[in-house]
Amino acid sequence: MLEIKNLHVELEEEGKPILRGLDLRVEAGRVHAIMGPNGSGKSTLSYVLAGREGYAVTEGSVTLDGRDLLALEPEERAAAGLFLAFQYPVEIPGVGNMTFLRTALNAQRKARGEEEISSADFLRLVRDRARALNIDAEMLKRSVNVGFSGGEKKRNEILQMAVLQPRMCVLDETDSGLDVDAMRLVADGVNALRDEGRAFLVITHYQRLLDHIVPDVVHILADGRIVRSGGPELAREVETNGYADILAGAA
Amino acid sequence: MTVRTDLRADATAALVASRSLPPGGGWIMPARADALRRLRAMGVPQKRDEYWRFTDPGSLVAPLPLPAEPMAPEDGEAFEGLEALRVVFTDGVFDPAASDDLALAGVEIDRLAAVAEADGHWAQDLFGVLEREGQMPVPRPLAALNTAFAPDGILIRVTGDPGRPIHIVQRHVAAASDAMLHHVVRVEPGARLTLLTSGPAAARLNKVIEVDVAEGGVFHHVRMQGRDHGRRAATHLFARVAARADFRSFTLTFNGALTRNEAIVTLAGDEARAHVAGASVGDGEFHHDDTVFVTHAAEACESRQVFKKVLRHGAVGVFQGKILVRPGAQKTDGYQLSQALLLDERSQFLAKPELEIYADDVKCSHGSTAGALDPDALFYLRSRGVTEAEAKNLLTLAFLREALDEIADERLAEDLSRRLEAWLRRRS
Asked: Does the residue B57 lie in any domain?
């Protein structure tokens, strides 16, 4: 589904290389985890996939179902089925959460040539998904992420994912700032979305999220490249021995 | 020897010579003559005046107006479908056929022109009086000009709760029309009124509204100016707010080559409240000036000024806002916010926020900012599939929301919000 080949990325302003030949292939129905120390390029990867400005791809390619993802605008990537759960979800005062969700859903449907969703169906869909994430009507009424706690913001990301039903979900440090209960809610939300037609790329610094969202494959990212790949046991090795040992072993 | 050239005196003489006093009798002629004396003493505003530093008054004081093409209202008339008593002026002239009967329970309504010949009228205690009081400490010659020469307007005295608003519809038809209107409103103790005004009014409009809200009275004013591109307007809203009275004024402005909206509000009785707010949007040839002067003259009063502007393609926004707290006006709560969203680098926002405080137990704050759309918010919306144009519109409306929130009536706020959305859509 997602195929990244020899991806080289620089920060546009500083010309500083961040990703240096990253290769990754994520198949439908699978959960891949990317782990790595700070500064290894994890967040850069997620932003480049979503199409944020400020990054220059100097080499390599990214395709989603064979389509050249890098040629698409951020909204076109979303309509094509890509979703990034942000590490730091943005607060947008004055834009109601429901308006936001509805505008986004209808914009994607329109881009795919589908009908707009009816008000009744939309309300039903959101209420249903929100309940599972323990998001109450009050939170839905507020402006996007404004006054939300760290945990509420992350749950709101997963709600958006559950409503928009993307095929390729990228989760950027979704566990950061979460306590154990909030992490379980978020993980349950993600696990509920796992199915044959959908793939996940879970980016995380710590292994603990992967106890709840159990990956099929774990990759270690260091200095802009995947240096090791393995099964879930690789995540536990990181937890036990730290990155230094693994990187020393990989070198 | 010095050669004396007095541009101000010449401009004033030329303007006065181009006008003639409207017909009128006993009560109104002294008021008009007084105003004319005031005008002559002050002289018309000049570009070099401090109070007109950011806005060139030239086209407002010229004997003849610059022509402006009237636009067909694409979104229908403002506040359509709302149950209201409608009073229609076309190019500043009362249109009886298009207006409702001037009869509403709990309200006395007269036309200024119709009662000008009468021996006396309740409005004589207010007509030109609040305007005159509002000339200190800053002269407002265009308002004195209006008191002297405005041939018509509406006089409203409210003694109860009419249950529905009065809507003054100001149509613009003739390309070179020059309108002057003077309205007076008196809200008696405990009474309440919502006054709506809408429309471009004329190619050039000079309007004064004097509002006196007695104890415990409620006055809500919602105004929509627009959308003609070439129109010019100088408006003054003078208000005196008595104890425990509630005064609110909100203005939504679309387009316009030049708009100067002055609001001069005095909180005259304890625990009075005044909120003055506005949202304006302009694209290209657009100059919009909000000049507000709020005086706290009594204890425990609350005032709010919230002004938001969306500017693009070289549009210019001006905000001059002042809170004056008089000696003894303890427990004052004053707030002032002016913000501009600059959608490109050619647009500009000029702001002069001022506080002048002569009491020691007060809470006053002001803030003024100019900035672009938040790129992080824009990316976040787009990453969820919202198109760039729609994301910008959503964020622009969100920026204006805080001003729209100042409108007490949700239906009115929603009506204006829809119009803003349509305006933004037409441009994206």
From this structure: yes
